[in-house]
Automatic annotation (TrEMBL):
Gene (UniProt): trpC
Name under which the protein is recorded: Indole-3-glycerol phosphate synthase
Keyword Lyase: yes
GO biological process entries: L-tryptophan biosynthetic process
Enzyme class of the recorded protein, top EC level: lyase
Keywords: Amino-acid biosynthesis, Aromatic amino acid biosynthesis, Decarboxylase, Lyase, Tryptophan biosynthesis
Domain of life of the source: Bacteria
Length: 259
């Protein structure tokens, strides 16, 4: 069992447990359920930098990245830096995140928020909406084409956007459908955790132009972004690079200024 299989196994159990405690009606009663969402895809199209900054405390590959910031400090710093959107990790066991992080982020900033999670069930999409997200992530490696279709359709019905993450040609081919807004190429192999920008470069031409292209993981330099832009990428998801510093907001500010 690789790390991704473990995460998904645990996630499915977690969702069953949550469903037994918090009914859907309670999620639908959230103040955020009526909220007008903000489009990340539109912001990326209009931006010259395209940075999606991430709030991430730890990861299976790096263990602790940073536990000392508050969510508010990080996300306000990112918003002030000029990030197009913010990715908030909500997985507890492997990434040290929670839905409360998403809630605190929503209370602190007025830019698009991505619920970064291993989504296997519509219930998690309802949670994303109830806790203030504007978009969700679907990971092609763990979903069938039918699941991607039904989950993305459900997401759109709630007024949220969909960022679909792929890692190779096969995942991309099974995933392309009109209910996606953005297609992200993860430069990190989720099974081995090895990182290479070549994944983004190789898949760029296969992604139809009606989807906003996003490159994710392993982006730590201005050069990397300048290297990827000619391939049509409009969004760049950066997590560890900012979070591992003493001041994530300042690190994002300096990075975006250089861009």
């Amino acid at each position: 069992m690789n790390i991704l299989d473990k995460i998904i196994f645990d996630k499915k159990r977690e969702v069953i447990l949550k469903k037994s405690i918090i009914p859907v009606s309670q999620l639908e009663a959230s103040v955020f359920f009526e909220r007008e969402t903000i489009s990340l895809s539109q912001k990326l199209k209009a931006s010259s930098t395209g940075i999606i900054a991430e709030h991430k405390r730890r990861s299976p590959s790096k263990s602790i990245i940073n536990q000392s910031f508050t969510v508010e400090e990080v996300v306000k710093g990112y918003e002030n830096a000029g990030a197009c959107g913010i990715s908030v990790l909500t997985d507890g066991k492997y990434f040290g995140g929670s839905l409360d992080d998403l809630l605190l982020a929503r209370a602190s900033v007025n830019i698009p928020l991505l619920r970064k999670e291993f989504i296997v069930d519509e219930y998690q999409i309802l949670e994303a909406k109830a806790f203030g997200a504007d978009l969700i992530l679907l990971i092609a490696a763990v979903l069938t084409r039918e699941e991607i279709k039904s989950l993305s359709e459900f997401t759109k019905s709630l007024g949220l956007e969909v960022l679909l993450e792929v890692h190779n040609q096969e995942e991309l081919e099974k995933s392309i459908m009109p209910t996606l807004d953005m297609i992200g190429v993860n430069n990190r192999n989720l099974k081995t955790f090895e990182v290479s920008l070549d994944f983004s470069k190789e898949l760029a031409a296969q992604i139809p132009d009606n989807f906003v292209k996003v490159s994710e993981s392993g982006i730590s330099s201005i050069e990397a972004i300048n290297e990827l832009k000619p391939y049509g990428y409009k969004g760049f998801l950066i997590g560890e690079n900012f979070m591992k510093t003493d001041n994530a907001g300042q690190a994002a500010t300096d990075f975006i200024k250089q861009l």
